[in-house]
Design a protein that fits this description.
- This protein is an alpha/beta fold and 277 residues long.
- Helix content is 51%, strand content 12%.
- Helix 6 links the parallel strand 6 and strand 7.
- The protein starts with 5 loop residues before the first helix and ends in an 18-residue tail after the last helix.
Length: 277
C-alpha cells in the first residue's frame, strides 16, 4: 500500500485551500498557515489521513463489501468513474438521486426496470410495440442508464461512502449518517468535517489533487481484493482436509468394530406361574 509522499501531494496542489473568509473553523486543526488570503493545508496530516483511510478501505474491500464513490462535480467525474471501475465498485457521477440510501428499495425497483426493458428487447416483445411506445421506452432506458447504470450491481446498501466535496454532496453524507454508514471524504477548508468519519484534508477542486488521492485509495482496495482472492483459493484445500478427518475416524471405528468379539445377547423369558389353590 503506497501512500503518496509530501512532494507528490505538493506537486498535485493538494495544499491549496479556499479564501480565508470562506473557511470553516472546524478545519482549523488541518490548516498549516495563511498566505495571500488563502489557507494552506498541512500536507503531513493529509498524508497521515490518506494512509488511515486507505487501510480501512482495504479491509472493507478484503471482506467483500461494497464502497460507493460519489462525486458529481465536473473536476472529479471522470477520475471517480475510472478508479471505481478499476476496483469493481459502484459510483455516482450524475445527480445524486434523493433517498438513494434511505429509500433504497425504490431505487432498486428503478434499476430492475432497466433489466425488464433489456429482456423485452431479447425476447421480441419490444418489436411488437408501436414506434411511439418504443421511443418512450428507449428514452426511459437511456435516462435510467445515465443516472443509475453505475449502481446496477449494487444489490444491497453499501458498507461505506467515499465522497469528493462534502458541501456539494451534503445530501449523500446526511443519508449515510442517518443509516450509520461510515463516510470517507476529501474535505477542503470551507467544509465541515464533523459529519465525516475519515477526513482527508485536501484541495477538492483540482483534478490532479483528487487523482493522486484516489490512486492511493483504490490501490489499497485493489490489494485487499487480491488478498481476498488468494484466501479463497487456499480455503477449499483447508476445507478438504477438514472433511477428510471425520472420514478417517469413521473408517477407524469400523475396523475396531470388526476386530471386536461378537457378544451374544440372550433374552430372559419369564414364565408366569399360576397361584396355588
Amino acid at each position: 500500500m503506497a501512500t503518496p509522499s509530501f512532494d507528490q501531494l505538493l506537486e498535485a496542489g493538494c495544499h491549496f485551500g479556499h479564501l480565508k473568509r470562506k473557511w470553516n473553523p472546524a478545519m482549523a486543526p488541518y490548516i498549516f498557515m495563511e498566505r495571500n488570503g488563502i489557507h494552506i493545508i498541512d500536507l503531513y496530516k493529509t498524508a497521515a489521513k490518506i494512509e488511515e483511510a486507505a487501510a480501512a478501505l482495504k479491509q472493507i474491500a478484503k471482506s467483500g463489501k461494497k464502497v460507493l464513490f460519489v462525486a458529481t462535480k465536473k473536476q472529479a467525474k471522470e477520475t471517480i468513474a475510472e478508479k471505481a471501475k478499476s476496483v469493481n465498485m459502484p459510483y455516482v457521477i450524475e445527480r445524486w438521486p434523493g433517498g438513494m440510501l434511505t429509500n433504497f428499495p425504490t431505487i432498486r425497483k428503478a434499476v430492475k426496470k432497466m433489466t425488464t426493458i433489456d429482456k423485452m428487447e431479447k425476447d421480441g416483445t419490444f418489436d411488437n410495440l408501436s414506434k411511439r411506445e418504443k421511443l418512450q421506452i428507449t428514452r426511459q432506458r437511456a435516462k435510467l442508464e445515465k443516472n443509475l447504470g453505475s449502481i446496477a450491481d449494487l444489490a444491497r446498501l453499501p458498507h461505506a461512502l467515499f465522497v469528493v466535496d462534502v458541501m456539494k454532496e451534503h445530501i449523500a453524507v446526511a443519508e449515510a449518517k442517518r443509516l450509520g454508514i461510515p463516510v470517507f471524504a476529501i474535505v477542503d477548508t470551507n467544509s465541515n468535517p464533523e459529519d465525516v468519519d475519515y477526513v482527508i484534508p485536501a484541495n477538492d477542486d483540482a483534478s490532479k489533487s483528487i487523482e493522486v488521492i484516489l490512486d492511493a485509495i483504490c490501490g489499497a482496495m485493489a490489494e485487499g481484493l487480491e488478498e481476498r482472492k488468494v484466501e479463497k483459493i487456499d480455503a477449499p484445500e483447508d476445507k478438504e482436509e477438514g472433511e477428510a478427518a471425520p472420514k478417517r475416524r469413521r473408517v477407524r471405528r469400523n475396523e475396531e468394530r470388526a476386530a471386536a468379539p461378537e457378544v451374544e445377547v440372550k433374552e430372559e423369558v419369564k414364565e408366569e406361574t399360576a397361584p396355588e389353590a
